[in-house]
Amino acid sequence: MSSAYSLIVSQGRVADRTDGALVGARRTADALSDLLSIEARVVGTPKAGRVDDWSVALPEAAETLNGLRAAVAEAITADSTPLLVTNTCAASLGTLPTVAERHPDAVVLWIDAHGDFNTPETTESGYLGGMVLAAACGLWDSGHGAGIDPRQVAVVGGRDIDPAEAELLSDAGVTVLSPAESTPERVLEFVAGRPVWIHVDWDVLEPGFIPAAYRVGDGLFPHQIAAIFAALPRTSVRGVELAEFEAGDPDVPERVSVELIIETVQHLLH
Question: Which positions, given as ranges, span the membrane (predicted)?
Answer without folding.
Answer: none
